[in-house]
Structure prediction request, 229 residues.
Amino acid sequence: MASNNGDVKLIGAWASPYVMRPRIALNVKSVEYEFLQEQFGSKSELLLKSNPVHKKIPVLLHNGKPICESSIIVEYIDEVWSSGPSILPSDPYDRAVARFWAAYLDEKVRAAPMAATEEAKNAAVEQLKEGLALLEGAYGEISKGKDFFGGEKIGFLDIAFGSMLGWLRAVQVILGGVKLLDEEKTPGLCKWAVKFSADPAVKDVLPETEKLLEFAKILMAKMKPASSS
Prediction:
């Protein structure tokens, strides 16, 4: 592991795809860090103090200074620990493209369409499928025939999308076997997903589907009283 990293802590929760992003980025850079897990349903004093604006995870604490928002944290990690493998592309245009698709993912491709009505759920699934079809095309262009969006190694867009993989797999089960990543419609992304999940920086961070399904049951149980009142 890299040395002289300073004091590095990450406030988060194991099931959050947004928390997985900085965790993977820190692993890519071989940065040792302390993972401070928030309890589900509550916010610690440290979180509220570190992110008083949004009061959300993840928050990176580097030598006591807080950095918030998952994509911003990943970029910060890439800049600060520049001696490790690059996460963002070196070319300005390629960087802009990676940021565009990362923003698109956060806006359109939600990994957990737990809508209240069947109609809303179906609409969410269709939006997911449409987004993944567009991303399939982007993968073909951006990867240039290599394994990852980032080329030979995982990069910014791999981390942005890959952090959602566990929930995509869980949602497929929750929705009764609906195929979101389909070998016929998204063959490139299917192959990419296998390689991304097996990467040393990823495999111990990405939760198992069964574990996420158990967590989803707890989430949905807590949502029911609120939606029925």
Summary: The two ends are 51 Å apart (CA to CA). The chain has nine helices and four strands. The beta strands are 8-12, 34-37, 59-62, 65-68.
